[in-house]
């Protein structure tokens, strides 16, 4: 009882009590502040990530081209077989004509270094498409090589001492001469989306990787969608509650958390080594990705099935439908928006997955897009990985641009998923 | 060809469906209400029993054709070429034959190989046509056989539904097959590895230099497979990641659950979740391009030399990736604490902060721990960030400014490029993979158990 009297005589307005209260409130505010700081750090880091990617990547969406007048001498190419001629020399001569004062062999070679290696190929393709160009002079816009692309974009600092940059004063002077003639332009880099990979950053594009990713995702979808839905329907609607279904459930939850690289090892040992399927093929990549996506689709589909109220099932059963009919005719159609949302999210995850594709060899260097699911191919994330490993400066911008394209696909897919969820979501 | 056969299967299934359905309709017309199943079920029953076996046959054929043809080709080769050849030499020979068959001829292959290549090409053509013929014949036989079973009293619906159930059960068992496949392939290759390198050397050796001598008489590069530095490197990077992610994730979860109003929550939560959706290769590039130079710069400002592939940069970026896992799992755990406990504490005059630290956190602790364990498992198994940002040299160090290597980095570096399944370097990757799988499996099982058991307690 003494305690009670002591408590009741507590001096609430004493300075000690005030101090205590202040301390407690301060602790409360501190905790709140930590929370805000934590969120600020997380969002700030995301911001830094995106800003650094955009800052590096936007440069790759434009390319520097120089317009030159190419003369194909009448004797240099055979009109019957116009693709077979020394176009490198033709382009070099035409380009050299712009700089009549340059005669030294070394200087001429350096001068030609301004143009990309793709320049002669572009001229060849033009002449091959129209043999009438032989003997004529025509204007062509050709990409410049990587150092000059960087120079024109301002990545290479012209004020640095000569020995610390990749282009010499003489080369800069030539390039400025071209600029003064109005021959240099920056145009949208359509090759980024239309060309496949290349050793030269100014020629490399994402087309091969996009096609490879598409095939792999197609295989992944064709396998994991039906299997995932069937498994989810069974587990949610039919499965008896026993040891075996418990085991299956634990298994699915675990598979969702198995490191992706382990799936790569599985694909390598089982599909490539044991079954002898081709390396680097989107088929194998898609199969591996589908095994990874399967748990996601099963879990999401089960959630969608669960959200369909039991009254619907009971009503259908009540009018004499069989259990399969209840599910096929009533439950599944109502669950479709949820299932699709989950599938798209699962495929988006698969699209960004890199490690298993590295192990099954989808990081090959290929200069043409794959023609089918059995052809060697790369995928978007592995292409990014290859570029990130390349030493040329131009690949830094290209990698960032590739990442922006990949993130663009992911945003679109997630956007569709969110749209589906909001458009078709139903509350019972 | 394969696409053509699959199309043929679809077409035959459709035909089968119409055949079955028209039989069903005839039964209905002739016998009326006595017919057991609706016509559409007759159709579905026939279709599924025509299409499915053919599909399975084609799949098996495609899977086995390569191996069977390889065996047959090897058998046709003269004794002199195959006698005493190891598995690797046989594989080399086969790939040469396959290259010749595909028209990619390097150097001058021996005449036997050219002959074998031509044979292989011929046999492949035969096999392709044989597959089509066998599949179509099978489908016709099945169509005739199944159709003859149809009758007015035939329980087509039950038959169809039983088959569907069977297919569904098969689909759900795929998860088990996958797990078994993972375990089998890892264990099989790891056992091969442990035949070459004794397990105690792998698990307790302090020296990891997997560079294998190319020639038998080469002096340097015998290859050492002591995995301890790789394991400690993995732990070091994972620890750094957890040190970054746990406080940020936990505090942001606390703020979002307890302090933030609904609008802030609705904005901040999706933004945080973007962090989880960013592909890991992007984080890897970010680590190499932005974070690692920044860490080096900071180090040189205060006069410390930082390795270009510091564990700090790789682990820090990995921590950023893991923040949303910890925050959303802690979020769930905090929300699962019953309202009454919160109200009780507040009613006693405790501040919000005291309620959180003294009541909510202890109550939600198991769920939070479960979430942290799941995140740790993710950090250990994470590949791309460390492949791009961590080092390749296995150094036994606890200094976060040094470069260390991880299990996943070693697996990727050892398996990129040409893979021969008989040298210890390749097989070591599978041994590491087995360890990785088992460790993450244990962490996942424990974490999922904790999370589940904890959830059930309050519901």
UniProtKB/TrEMBL annotation, chain A:
Record-annotated membrane-spanning stretches: 31-55, 214-235, 255-277, 283-305, 326-348, 395-420
Bilayer disposition of the protein: Multi-pass membrane protein
Domain ABC transmembrane type-1: 210-417
Gene3D superfamilies: MetI-like
CDD domains: TM_PBP2 (cd06261)
InterPro entries noted in UniProt: DUF3333, MetI-like, MetI-like_sf, Phosphate_PstA
The keyword Cell membrane is assigned to this record: yes
Record keywords, A-Z: Cell membrane, Membrane, Transmembrane, Transmembrane helix, Transport
GO molecular function, a single term: phosphate transmembrane transporter activity
Chief place of localization: membrane
BP GO annotations: phosphate ion transmembrane transport
Localization of this protein: Cell inner membrane; Cell membrane
GO cellular component: plasma membrane
Protein family per UniProt: Belongs to the binding-protein-dependent transport system permease family. CysTW subfamily.
Protein known as: Phosphate transport system permease protein PstA
Species per Swiss-Prot/TrEMBL record: Futiania mangrovi
Automatic annotation (TrEMBL), chain B:
Primary localization: membrane
UniProt cross-references to Pfam families, sorted A to Z: BPD_transp_1, DUF3708
Subcellular location: Cell inner membrane; Cell membrane
Record's keyword terms, sorted: Cell inner membrane, Cell membrane, Membrane, Phosphate transport, Transmembrane, Transmembrane helix, Transport
CDD domains membership: TM_PBP2
GO MF term list: phosphate transmembrane transporter activity
Transmembrane segments: 40-64, 126-146, 167-188, 235-259, 271-292, 312-334, 355-376, 427-451
One Gene Ontology term, aspect cellular component: plasma membrane
Chain ranges of the ABC transmembrane type-1 domain: 231-447
Membrane topology per record: Multi-pass membrane protein
One annotated GO biological process: phosphate ion transport
Role description: Part of the binding-protein-dependent transport system for phosphate; probably responsible for the translocation of the substrate across the membrane.
Family, similarity comment: Belongs to the binding-protein-dependent transport system permease family. CysTW subfamily.
Protein name: Phosphate transport system permease protein
């Amino acid at each position: 009882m003494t305690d009670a009297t002591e408590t009741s005589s507590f001096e609430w307005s004493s300075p000690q009590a005030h101090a205590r209260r202040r301390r407690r409130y301060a602790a409360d505010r501190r905790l709140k502040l930590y929370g805000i700081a934590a969120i600020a750090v997380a969002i700030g880091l995301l911001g830094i990530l995106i800003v650094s990617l955009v800052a590096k990547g936007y440069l790759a969406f434009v390319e520097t081209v120089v317009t030159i007048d190419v003369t194909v001498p009448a004797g240099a190419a055979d009109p019957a077989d116009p693709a077979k001629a020394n176009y490198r020399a033709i382009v070099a001569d035409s380009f050299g004509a712009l700089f009549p004062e340059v005669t030294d062999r070394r200087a001429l070679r350096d001068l030609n270094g301004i143009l990309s290696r793709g320049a002669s190929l572009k001229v060849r393709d033009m002449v091959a498409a129209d043999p009438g160009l032989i003997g004529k002079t025509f204007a062509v816009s050709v990409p410049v090589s990587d150092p000059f692309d960087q120079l024109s974009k301002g990545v290479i600092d012209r004020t640095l001492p000569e020995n610390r940059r990749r282009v010499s004063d003489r080369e800069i002077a030539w390039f400025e001469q071209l600029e003064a003639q109005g021959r240099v332009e920056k145009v949208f880099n359509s090759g980024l989306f239309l060309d496949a990979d290349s050793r030269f950053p100014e020629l490399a594009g994402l087309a091969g990787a996009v096609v490879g990713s598409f095939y792999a995702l197609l295989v992944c979808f064709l396998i994991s969608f039906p299997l995932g839905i069937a498994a989810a329907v069974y587990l949610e609607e039919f499965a008896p509650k026993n040891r075996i279904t418990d085991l299956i459930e634990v298994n699915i939850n675990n598979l969702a958390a198995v490191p992706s690289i382990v799936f790569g090892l599985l694909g390598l040992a089982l599909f490539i080594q044991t079954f002898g399927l081709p390396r680097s093929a989107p088929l194998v990549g898609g199969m591996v990705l589908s095994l990874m996506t399967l748990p996601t689709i099963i879990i999401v589909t089960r959630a969608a099935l669960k959200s369909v109220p039991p009254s619907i099932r009971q009503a259908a059963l009540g009018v004499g439908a069989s259990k399969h009919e209840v599910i096929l005719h009533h439950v599944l159609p109502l669950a479709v928006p949820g299932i699709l949302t989950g599938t798209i999210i699962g495929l988006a995850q698969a699209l960004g997955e890199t490690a298993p594709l590295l192990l099954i060899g989808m990081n090959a260097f290929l200069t043409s897009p794959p023609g089918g699911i059995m052809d060697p191919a790369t995928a978007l994330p592995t292409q990014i990985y290859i570029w990130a490993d390349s030493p040329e400066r131009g690949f830094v911008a290209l990698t960032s641009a590739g990442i922006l394209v990949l993130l663009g696909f992911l945003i679109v897919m997630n956007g569709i998923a969110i749209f589906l969820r909001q458009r078709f979501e139903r509350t019972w | 060809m394969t696409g053509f056969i699959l199309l043929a299967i679809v077409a035959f299934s459709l035909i089968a469906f119409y055949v079955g359905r028209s039989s069903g309709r005839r039964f209905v017309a002739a016998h009326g209400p006595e017919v057991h199943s609706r016509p559409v079920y007759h159709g579905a029953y026939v279709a599924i029993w025509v299409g499915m076996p053919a599909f399975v046959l084609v799949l098996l054929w495609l899977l086995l054709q390569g191996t069977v043809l390889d065996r047959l080709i090897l058998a046709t080769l003269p004794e002199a070429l195959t006698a005493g050849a190891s598995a690797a030499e046989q594989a080399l020979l086969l790939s040469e034959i396959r290259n010749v068959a595909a028209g990619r001829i390097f150097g001058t292959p021996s005449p036997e190989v050219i002959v074998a290549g031509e044979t292989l090409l011929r046999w492949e053509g035969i096999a392709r046509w044989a597959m089509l013929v066998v599949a179509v014949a099978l489908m016709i036989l099945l169509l005739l056989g199944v159709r003859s079973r149809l009758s007015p009293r035939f329980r087509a619906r039950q038959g169809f539904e039983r088959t569907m159930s069977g297919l569904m059960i098969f689909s759900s068992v795929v998860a088990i097959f996958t797990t078994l496949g993972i375990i089998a392939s890892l264990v099989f290759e790891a056992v091969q590895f442990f035949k070459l390198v004794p397990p105690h050397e792998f698990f307790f050796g302090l020296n990891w230099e997997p560079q294998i001598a190319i020639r038998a008489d080469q002096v340097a590069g015998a290859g050492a497979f002591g995995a301890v530095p790789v394991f400690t490197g993995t732990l070091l990077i994972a620890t750094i990641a957890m040190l970054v992610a746990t406080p940020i994730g936990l505090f942001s979860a606390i703020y979002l659950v307890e302090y933030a109003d609904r609008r802030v929550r609705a904005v901040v939560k999706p933004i945080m979740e973007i962090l989880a959706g960013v592909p890991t290769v992007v984080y890897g590039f970010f680590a190499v391009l932005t974070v690692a130079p920044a860490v080096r710069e900071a180090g040189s400002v205060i006069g410390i030399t930082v390795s270009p592939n510091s564990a700090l940069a790789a682990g820090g970026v990995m921590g950023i990736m893991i923040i949303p896992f910890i925050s959303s799992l802690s979020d769930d755990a905090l929300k699962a604490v019953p309202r009454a406990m919160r109200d009780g504490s507040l009613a006693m005059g405790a501040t919000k902060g005291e309620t959180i630290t003294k009541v909510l956190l202890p109550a939600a602790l198991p769920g939070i721990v479960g979430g942290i364990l799941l995140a740790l498992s993710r950090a250990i198994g994470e590949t791309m960030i460390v492949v791009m940002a961590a080092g390749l040299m296995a150094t036994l160090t606890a200094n976060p400014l040094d470069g260390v290597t991880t299990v996943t980095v070693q697996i990727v570096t050892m398996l990129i490029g040409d893979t021969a399944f008989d040298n210890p370097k390749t097989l070591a990757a599978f041994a590491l993979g087995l360890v990785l799988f088992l460790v993450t499996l244990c962490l996942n099982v424990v974490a999922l158990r904790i999370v589940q058991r904890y959830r059930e307690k309050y519901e």
